[in-house]
Amino acid sequence: MDQIVNVNEFQELAKRALPKMYYDFYSGGAEDQHTLKENVEAFTRIMFRPRVLVDVSKIDMSTRILGYPISAPIMIAPTAMHMLAHPQGETATAKAAATCNTIMIVSYMASCTIEEVASSCNAIRFLQIYVYKRRDVTAQIVKRAEKAGFKAIVLTVDVPKLGRREADIKNKMVSPQLRNFEGLFSTEVIPSEGSGVEAFASSTFDASLNWKDIEWLRSITKLPIMVKGILTREDAVKAIEAGVDGIVVSNHGARQLDYSPATITVLEEIVLVVGGRVPVLLDGGVRRGTDVFKALALGAQAVLIGRPVVYGLAAKGEDGVRKVIEMLKNELELTMALSGCPTIDDITRNHVRTESDRLKSML
C-alpha cells in the first residue's frame, strides 16, 4: 500500500480485485451518470481563499456529531453488501472506523447482521434504514439496532423506487440473501432479466412513505433520527418541521435521479435555511481532503465517504478502509494548515470562493 498516494487510486485496485458485476454495482450511477460525474467535478469549481501567517503548529480536526466525539469530520456513509467486496464485510469496515475514531453508518442492506457489526469492535455507530411495505420488519430492525447499542437512525428518504442503474440491468445483478432479514423474508433474487436488486426493491420498498411517517418512526424509537436524501431548501424546512435531529444532503451517490444536482452545489442553501438548528452532513463526490474542507466552509458539520471506503475494502480489506480514512484526514490537516485554520471552527465561508460568488462579483 506504500505506493498508493491518494484515495482515487483505490478505485483501480478495486476494479482489478472485483468481479465485473460487483464492481459495476458499486461504481455505477443512474442512467447517463451525469450526476455521478458532476458530484466529483462540482468540487473542482470551488477555489480557496487561504489566509497566511496564522499559527498552525497544532491542527485540531476533532468535532462532535449529535454529541459524539470523532477525530475528524469524516464519517463512513451507508453502502450496501460489503461482503461482495471482502469476505469480512461490514465487520472489517467497522473495525477500520473504530481505529480511525470515527462513526460508521451501517447500511440496512448490510451483508453482516447488526449484531455481528456491533460485537466486532467498540465504537459509536448509526444505522441507516429504509421503510419497507412491511413496517413490522423495519420496526424489528430498529429495535435490534437499539438493543445492539447503535446511537442514531438515519432514514433514507430518496428511494420510493430504485433508480435506473443500467449496468446492473445489463449484468443481471444478483440480490443475495441478507442475514439481517433471515426468518423475516427472502431478499435473494437471481433475475432471468434485469437487475435483481431493482426487482427486490420494487417488491419491498414503501413508495407511500411521506413526512407523516417520521412520526411513526419517532413512535418506535427513542434514538435521534436523521434524514438522508435532502437536496432542496423546501425539503430542509419540512425536515425541521417534522422534528428530525439531523439532515444529510445526498443524492444517493448519483444512483437515483440522474440530473439531480451535485450535493456540494446545494449544500449552502440548505445550511442557510436550517440555521444551525440541527447538524447538516454532506455525502457525494468527496475524494480529497480539500473536498472535506470545502464542504465544511459551506456549512456542513461533516462529510460521509461512500465508494472510496468500498474500494479500499475491496482492494485491501480493513487496512484499505483505514488507509482511505487516514489519507483524507492527512489531506484535510494539510489543507487546514495551508488555509490558516488551526481548528474546525476556524474554517469559514470566507475561506472559499464558489461559482456563484464569481458570478456575483461580475455583476
UniProtKB/TrEMBL annotation:
It is an enzyme of class 1 (oxidoreductase). The keyword Manganese does not apply. One of its GO terms (cellular component) is peroxisome. Residues 1-357 form the FMN hydroxy acid dehydrogenase domain. It is found in: Peroxisome. Gene3D superfamilies: Aldolase class I. It holds the Pfam family FMN_dh. It catalyses: 2-hydroxyoctanoate + O2 = 2-oxooctanoate + H2O2; a (2S)-2-hydroxycarboxylate + O2 = a 2-oxocarboxylate + H2O2; 2-hydroxyhexanoate + O2 = 2-oxohexanoate + H2O2. One of its GO terms (molecular function) is FMN binding. Keywords: Flavoprotein, FMN, Oxidoreductase, Peroxisome. InterPro entries: Aldolase_TIM, Alpha-hydoxy_acid_DH_FMN, FMN-dep_DH, FMN_HAD, FMN_hydac_DH_AS. Glyoxylate binds at R165, H252, R255. The keyword Oxidoreductase applies. GO terms for biological process: defense response to bacterium; hydrogen peroxide biosynthetic process. It comes from the Eukaryota. FMN binds at residues 78-80, 107, 128, 130, 156, 228, 250, 283-287, 306-307. The active site is at H252. Its cofactor is FMN. Belongs to the FMN-dependent alpha-hydroxy acid dehydrogenase family. Homotetramer. This is (S)-2-hydroxy-acid oxidase. It comes from Brassica campestris.
